[in-house]
Amino acid sequence: MRRLASQLWFQVLLATALGVLLGVLAPSAGARMKPLGDAFIALIRMIVAPVIFCTVVHGIGAMRDLRRVGRVAVKSLVYFELITTVALIVALLAVNLFQPGAGMNVDAHAIDTRAIGAYTSEARGASIAQSLLDIIPTTFVGAFAQPEVLPTLLVSILFALAVSALGPRAQVVSEVVGVLSEVFFRIVGFIMWVAPIGAFGAMAFTVGRFGAGSLVALGKLLLEFYAVSLGFVLVVFGAVAYWAGVSLVRLLAYLREEIVIVAATTSTETVLPRLMQKLRALGCEESVVGLVVPAGYSFNLDGTCLYLSTAVVFLAQATNTHLGLAQQLGVIAVLLLTSKGAAGVAGAAFVVLAATLGSLGTVPVASIALILGIHRLMAEALAFVNLVGNSLATIVVARWENAVDDSLLYARIGRGAASAGGARAAQR
């Protein structure tokens, strides 16, 4: 029992349960726990940029073949687009089949939109062109002061390419960055000591703020979305893991601590540094991890795609807005673009949902107020899918590039049912 109590995942799980209990028994006290969750997320955000910079620079800087860097990037983007497209289609099929919003007959004009003002104002200021421009920071150092991942990734790649191009003369830079990387990962270890406190605060606030009823409100939608998310992980990710020759079940067990933290904080950003560290421990090369994981946080949001597709059609059903086949195909096209703006930050998907509805011009934007109360509960599932998706993507690209130590990989998460034949197929 003492050994179990010392495990981080158990501590976070216990703290989450205590947070739910406090929120139910003393809602006002639970709502006041919000700063604890916010503080933990802020600590993680503080360290994300330097961790990405050091990992990318040290990994790519050590590569002498710059064509390989481009090859890894292209393979990653191809994989990202394929899987996110599958996620959008699966979600659309499921929400049309189960129709969780049918029969609600909501009048969008009667909805109180005051609670969603902040989200819709952010959405109105967003555009595809502006999103692309936002990737470029005002200054090089300014990239580290922004909450988004992509500006940091951009300057990190540019710096790493320059280090690699300089060759032996830049060896000292690569060594210094390597030491700094160890320092920042040690800081991550310190921060994870308070993860249970952050999980407690985040969950106590959720239940206390929205009430115990928030755990069962709009139950049909929640049940449908959780079932689709779990099915997507088991079927789609299971098939990908089979093709890559690894065990999905063992991978989930390997990431159990990160899964619990993500479920409590509803943000994959809280485990980004630790995830990169654990994927390197699986035998994936640092250069691949440094490229695929940060890029995946903006381009490989499978759970967010499931959420957006489900939410758009649900709101259409709830407001009796007809969406034909052509219009739903249009939804997929729009979401392939807008979903890329939903970083791994809690609440970002809700802003993107508002922007998506505004782009479509068919489903009333005001209708998002219907799911505001349960968005955080849905975010637990979408964040879980995003986490697993980015972890598996890194393994797939690493195997695709022959950039993984198979002995380490199989020692920690075992072989999948595909056996050696499937593993060889994944490498081709």
Summarize, please.
With 428 residues, this protein is an all-alpha fold. It has 21 helices and no strands.
Topology:
Elements: H1 2-5, H2 8-25, H3 27-31, H4 34-61, H5 66-98, H6 117-124, H7 128-134, H8 149-166, H9 171-192, H10 195-210, H11 219-244, H12 248-254, H13 256-265, H14 272-281, H15 286-299, H16 302-318, H17 325-338, H18 348-360, H19 375-400, H20 406-413, H21 419-427
Structure description:
The chain is an all-alpha fold and 428 residues long. It has one domain: Sodium:dicarboxylate symporter (Proton glutamate symport protein). It is 73% helix and 0% strand. It is built from 21 helices and no strands. It has helices spanning 2-5, 8-25, 27-31, 34-61, 66-98, 117-124, 128-134, 149-166, 171-192, 195-210, 219-244, 248-254, 256-265, 272-281, 286-299, 302-318, 325-338, 348-360, 375-400, 406-413, 419-427. Helix 5 runs antiparallel to helix 11 (219-244). The radius of gyration is 21 Å and the shape is globular. Mean pLDDT is 78; it is low at 213-217 and 418-428.
Give keywords.
mainly alpha; 73% helix; Proton glutamate symport protein; globular; 428 residues; 21 helices
